[in-house]
Design brief:
By secondary structure, the protein is of the alpha/beta class. The protein has 6 helices and 14 strands. It has helices at about 15-25, 45-55, 70, 75-90, 120-130, 180-185, and strands at about 5-10, 30-35, 60-65, 95-100, 110-115, 145-150, 155-165, 170-175, 185, 195, 205-210, 220, 230-235, 240-245. The strands form 3 sheets. Strands 2-1-3-4-5 form a 5-stranded parallel sheet, with helices on both faces. α2 (about 45-55) packs parallel to α4. About 30% of the residues are buried.
Length: about 250
């Protein structure tokens, strides 16, 4: 089984994004190993990275989650040095940079992928030589979502959501029609929101056209909680459906 190491700042896994990435790669046959970079321990980069990066028997490929946190405080220079030593020891190898922001051109990487690219799965799969083009059911979902209780005002709750990786090119939020008046959903802070009913009359929906990413998701205001809801990429066949269970 081929092994891929994933190097990342611990801050970038606070909400399980790296765990989700590892899950998706693992399902196409790769063994994933994690290399977290903890605050204040950057000198370990110089010791640990060469131990797996420069040795083909330890790593068939390497992924850097190149966030601002991962490259800050001199880490980029340390990582650049580790890559150079690995190239000198083993020659060319699969080194992938996953960048949620600007790509660091100093690093000698064989592939670069934008975390918010719509086709990040295709790009990463091509780099690793495996098929992760379609999300599969797994323990970890491809989104982050939570319900917040609001104090005061006509809305009692807010539903916050965003994709862990990739993007929603347009955002849909829907509830059953019988819940529409009681819940009175409102996609917050957006103009030009469209609304309507699904063709099968199973859903009342609202649609916003702004792109959603892990860095910039959506908030929906609710006067009450629906029995179930749908949200995510435009097209109810692509949306996530959640059943909300009342507390006992």
């Amino acid at each position: 089984m081929a092994t891929v190491w994933i190097t990342f700042a611990t801050e970038d896994n606070a909400e399980g994004v790296i765990d989700y990435l590892a899950q998706e790669i693992s399902r196409c046959g790769w063994k994933t190993r994690l290399h977290p970079m903890f605050p204040g321990e950057d000198e370990k980069i110089d010791r640990l990275m060469p131990a797996f990066l420069a040795r083909p028997e330890q790593s068939d490929a390497w992924i850097l989650f190149g966030s601002a946190a991962a490259l800050a405080h001199g880490r980029a220079a340390r990582i650049e040095g580790a890559i150079q030593r690995a190239l000198g020891a083993r020659g060319e190898f699969t080194a992938v940079g996953l960048f949620p922001g600007a790509r660091d051109e100093r690093l000698q990487l064989s592939h670069t992928v934008g975390v918010h690219d719509a086709d990040w799965r295709q790009q990463l799969g091509d780099a690793l030589g495996c098929d992760i083009a379609e999300a599969a059911d797994g323990v970890l979902p491809p989104y982050l979502a939570n319900v917040n209780v609001l104090s005061g005002g006509e809305y009692r709750y807010s539903f916050e959501c965003r994709p862990k990786m990739g993007r929603w090119d347009a955002f849909v939020f829907a509830v059953p029609p019988e819940d529409m008046k009681r819940v009175a959903p409102k996609i917050a802070f957006e103009e030009g929101v469209e609304e309507g009913f699904s063709d099968d009359a199973e859903w009342y929906f609202q649609l916003a056209r702004r792109v959603a990413t892990a860095a910039n998701g959506y908030s929906v205001l609710l006067k009450d909680l629906p029995k179930r809801l749908a949200f995510g990429q435009e097209g109810l066949d692509q949306a996530v459906i959640l059943e909300l269970r009342p507390k006992n």
